[in-house]
């Protein structure tokens, strides 16, 4: 079939790593997207500035910028300007991103070791978590589709882009709004809105078992790491929330820390365990007299080696990866939040609304996920069921008082 009829062969499209998203370090413009010539891409800068005016965090700006960079690299590879892109380019991009290997793996892993498209890696033998594979996850592809649709909606409304969005809504949803006929007696559910939006499988939170957590904690190499993990698993705070606290946010007397919530940006005090404050004090005692700023508004967490810098998320992620390597597991920092939430939800002295407040969830339905049985509990229950079904009792139990055994034998045909 001719290319004009079947479209591009996306398997032969080579998208080079041209252009970049740079961190400016400026509060006015945290991120800036550059084209292959090193020039600022103006339409992206205007869009990111609009997101910043809406109160979006710098992490959101970086996430949106990376999705736009991936789309622009595809357009640069096929020779199409961003404002000339049609639904044909959007369709081909959606096919390409579902087939391609992540660019960071194309050079670091040999071609024969890569997995085929759509084939997930084997589950981890320790944690049981399914492997991510070499391609982009459905959640990443769905997020990219949402970002690109909003990008073109913004420029269409501003009369600075195409009047037809290359990433349209689904045909069944184009004439109506989401949840137009919602039953108030049922919970809200997300609806598929984009034509090129993939189906995202539902993921259940996975907590770290107590025995495995003790092994990981024993593999940590310094008091700073032990204090961090102890705070994460006792407060349920997100990784970025805990890494952003300052010295003035600590209240050892009340066993409280003050965090800024990731989504709502609300300032909230969260209770922590006494052990976490003990490890924190040991870490602070080690850093006395080493030239680290000690002001009340200074960060709590710093790098171990000189030159001392505030600890970033990527450095903390690598720290936890090294601890995982001792067990061969693949748990993440966010699994510590799941572990804390599971422990709290299983405590009969804590109500579900208490757990919701500690975790900072906007909806109670999100917290309800932690009261469901875990995969290990279900497996053990089903195996016990098969074990009970495999062996029948040798002698029937005696009848309850008041029943004649002979009458029961006549009714059920057994003695």
Please summarize what this structure is.
The chain is mostly helical and 415 residues long.
Low-confidence stretches: none
Please indicate the percent range of residues in DSSP E strands (runs of 2 or more): under 5%
Helix tally equals 16
* Number of extended strands: 5
Mean pLDDT: 87
Helix coverage percent of residues? 40-55%
Enter the CATH topology name of the domain at 210-370: hpI Integrase, Chain A
The biggest sheet amounts to: 3 strands, antiparallel
CATH homologous superfamily placement of the domain at 210-370: Intergrase catalytic core
CATH class of the domain at 210-370: Mainly Alpha
Q: Biggest sheet, strands in spatial order?
A: 3-4-5
Estimated radius of gyration: 27 Å
Q: Helix and strand string, N-terminal first? A: HEEHHHHHHHHEEEHHHHHHH
Specify the structural class.
mainly alpha
- What would CATH call the architecture of the domain at 210-370? Orthogonal Bundle
Which shape, going by the Cα principal axes?
A: globular
GO molecular function, one term: DNA binding
Protein name: Site-specific integrase
Region (Disordered): 386-406
GO biological process, one term: DNA integration
């Amino acid at each position: 079939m001719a290319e004009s009829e079947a479209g591009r062969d996306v398997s032969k499209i080579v998208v080079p790593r041209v252009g970049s998203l740079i961190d400016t370090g400026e509060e006015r413009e945290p991120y800036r997207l550059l084209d292959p010539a090193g020039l600022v891409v103006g339409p992206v800068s205007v869009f990111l500035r609009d997101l910043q005016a809406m109160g979006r965090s710098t992490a959101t700006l970086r996430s949106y910028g990376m999705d736009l960079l991936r789309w622009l690299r595809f357009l640069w590879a096929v020779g199409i300007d961003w404002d000339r892109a049609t639904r044909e380019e959007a369709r081909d991009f959606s096919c390409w991103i579902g087939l391609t290997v992540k660019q960071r793996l194309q050079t670091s892993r040999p071609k024969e070791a890569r997995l085929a498209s759509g084939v997930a890696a084997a589950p981890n033998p320790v944690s049981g978590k399914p492997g991510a594979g070499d391609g982009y996850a459905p959640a990443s592809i769905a997020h990219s589709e949402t970002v690109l649709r909003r990008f073109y909606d913004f420029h269409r409304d501003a009369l600075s882009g195409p009047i037809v969005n290359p990433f349209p809504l689904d045909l069944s949803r184009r004439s109506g709004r989401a949840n137009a006929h919602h039953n108030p007696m049922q919970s809200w559910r997300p609806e598929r809105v984009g034509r090129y939006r993939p189906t995202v499988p539902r993921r259940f939170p996975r907590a770290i078992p107590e025995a495995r957590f003790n092994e990981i904690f024993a593999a940590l190499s310094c008091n700073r790491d032990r204090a961090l993990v102890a705070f994460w698993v006792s407060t349920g705070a997100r990784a970025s929330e805990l890494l952003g606290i300052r010295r003035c946010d600590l209240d050892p007397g009340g066993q409280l820390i003050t965090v800024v919530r990731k989504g709502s940006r609300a300032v909230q005090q969260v209770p922590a365990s006494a052990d976490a404050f003990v490890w924190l004090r040991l870490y602070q005692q080690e850093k006395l007299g080493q030239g680290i700023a000690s002001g009340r508004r200074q960060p709590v967490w710093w790098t171990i080696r000189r030159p001392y810098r505030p600890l970033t998320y990527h450095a903390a992620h690598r720290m936890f990866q090294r601890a995982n390597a001792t067990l061969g597991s693949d748990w993440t920092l966010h699994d510590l939040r799941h572990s804390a939430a599971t422990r709290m939800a299983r405590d009969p002295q804590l109500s579900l609304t208490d757990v919701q407040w500690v975790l900072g969830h906007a909806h109670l339905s999100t917290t309800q996920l932690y009261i469901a049985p875990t995969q290990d509990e279900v497996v053990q229950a089903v195996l016990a069921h098969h074990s009970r079904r495999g062996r029948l009792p040798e002698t029937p139990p005696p009848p309850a008082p008041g029943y004649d055994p002979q009458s029961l034998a006549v009714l059920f045909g057994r003695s």
